[in-house]
Amino acid sequence: MGLRGKRFVHVTSENLWRPAAPAEPSDTMAKIKKRGESGAAKNYITRNQALKKLQITLAEFRRLCILKGIFPRQPRHIKRANKGSTAPTTFYYAKDIAYLQHEPVLQAFRENKAFAKKMNRAIARREWFAAKNLDDHRPQYRLDHIIKERYPTFVDSLRDLDDAISMLFLFANIPSQKSIAPEITTHCARLCTEWQLYVMRTRCLSKVFLSIKGIYFQAVVHGQEITWLVPYMFTQTIPSDVDFRVMMTFLELYQTLMGFVLFKLYTDENLVYPPKLDEDMDNQGAGFGSLVLKAADADVLSGKNNENAPQVAEAASKNAIVRKDGKKLSARDVKRQIARLAETGADDDELPPLDTAEDGEPAEDDNDTFVAQTSKHAAQENASADVLTTLGDLQQQASENPVPTLFTRYVFYISREVPRAVFEFILRSFGALPDHIGWDPVAGAGSHIREDDARITHHILDRPVTDGQPLEHAGHRVYVQPQWVVDCVNARKLLPTDPYRPGQTLPPHLSPFVDDREVARQGGYVPAEARAALGLEEEAAYEEDDEDEEEEETREADTAATPSRPALEALLADPHGAGLLEAAELEAEAAGGEDALLALREAHAAAVKAAKKKSKKAAVPPALSEEAEAQDMAKMLLSNKQRKLYNSLNRASGKKKEDKMRLEAKKRMLSKKKTKAAP
């Protein structure tokens, strides 16, 4: 009998026939990981995968990474990051590539690719009007947002300015070619001149070094040390293995960065940026004289007060304020007005006019700087700023303005074989007035001093001088080689000119970027000139004198003993010998009593001291030294990585000592040759 249509009777519990409910996931249950979807395989992405994801070419990807500051990464486990493959590849952070997907420059690359296709099509069809229209509307992009992203603060941009300025100077001196347009060279030269003009105005140059590669400069701007390299003005040989596409990408970024930095620096100095260019003077090779600095007055910038613009600019250059009636206000008058505002609490319009200085009467505080006040609160803060000057502020001012008036009192003439732009920059950065520097008309226009001017005090010459060409000119001038200027800058004082006369062998040109005292402390090689300047020779001589005195005392103690006493001789030969001291004391009592005994003890103490000194000089085996044992024990506890690092440091220190000994031996050999060659 079938079971169809029959009804089952549940004789057991209700849950017996109920289907089992799906198990709910527990909070403590671990998540199942799948291969290639977590860990290093998810955090890293290969370069080919990045190209497919961004849909750009390799050249565009490299350019985009340079602009955004994205570089390859090295995973800890390469096999895991490459999903089990061991093939060599380049990895990037997946989040960096995802960040590039929303970059406006990427969209500009795609628009440029579409533009290239349209342009090629129009040229192939000989549609010249359409091609001209396309060229006029070529897609452009800006890098301003990238500069703001990579450098959140102005100090960050100053810290990254070394490479930027060096590359700008490099491209300013490279001749134009197929890959380098003349406009790029001109723009780089303009930015370099504007930077040097700012350094000269603020006098923040601190170090100069003439090397084989070029001239190293260092300036302190807003507390940051900026070092750059300027190549010599020679014909540049461009190598064939240099990828100029990569360098042009860096140059594009650095040009934008330099524009931002110069705008900020000029604005802080109350100057208009960019400075006005005199094209006639620039065509004549005037250099710095072709740029005209102008005060950034609000009315001048807006064009509302064009009639008084020259007057305002001249007054701003002299740290003065000009009112509408044409009268000058000194800084002292301005401070007096600020104090009256703080006392009365009235507005500026309610106060009586300030008493100005008479025409031709110099103000007492013309050299004081004035900062425009925007409110009463700001005026009060500025009024108290002069009183609350701290030691840190003084140190910062001293570091930012090192010896600003070193060459102020002198008149210089630069000969035609000397790089005029370089030494004009150095002289003006350390106080030389623009109208006190002259050069040969061949080097460019704008010279204020002729060669036969009697006011010239220093004539910078860099050509060989023969006996048939005496150096005689009107006035009391001194002929020096260019190194004299650089050495004076590094020494922070005027050096004697006799060692720097034309035809003389120049003194060693020491680098100001090397701390010779620290090198000497670490056991490195320090030239004799630097040791003498730092006083290290006196310290070494003092130590040698102490050692000689100790040796003399030891010899005197040795000679104090008489040769007729064999026990004493044996004791002096072996001060630590067992039983020798007692035998020598008995011998001394029998020979001379108490006096001989005292002399014996003094001689024994001197012998013990001499033995200790000899033992220190002798090489002690590592097994017999407690310090060596402790050092070996500590070395055993190091990991393999730490042990390799420790060994490399020891090898480096040993190499330094070997280099020092080699240089000293070479110097002794050269000095011997000079003494032999001397008549």
Describe the structure.
The protein is α/β, with parallel strands linked by helices and 679 residues long. Among the domains are: 40-102, no CATH class; 107-136; 144-269, no CATH class; 320-400, no CATH class; 412-500, BRCT domain (Rossmann fold, 3-Layer(aba) Sandwich); 561-619, no CATH class. The chain contains 28 helices and 13 strands. A four-stranded parallel β-sheet has the order 11-10-12-13. Strands 3-4-5 form a three-stranded antiparallel β-sheet. The longest helix is centred in the C-terminal third of the chain and has 38 residues, at 640-677. The protein starts with 39 loop residues before the first helix and ends with a helix. Mean pLDDT is 75; it is low at 299-326, 346-352, 354-389, 397-402, 540-545 and 559-563.
| Estimated share of beta-strand residues | 5-15%
Identify the overall geometry: flat
- Overall radius of gyration: 40 Å
Uncertain segments are 299-326, 346-352, 354-389, 397-402, 540-545, 559-563
> Count of DSSP E strands?
13
**Which bin fits the share of residues in helices?**
40-55%
Distance between the termini: 142 Å
- The computed structural class is alpha/beta
Oligomeric status: single chain
Q: Reading side by side through the largest sheet, how are the strands ordered?
A: 11-10-12-13
Largest sheet: 4 strands, parallel
* Tally of contiguous helical segments: 28
Give the overall average pLDDT: 75
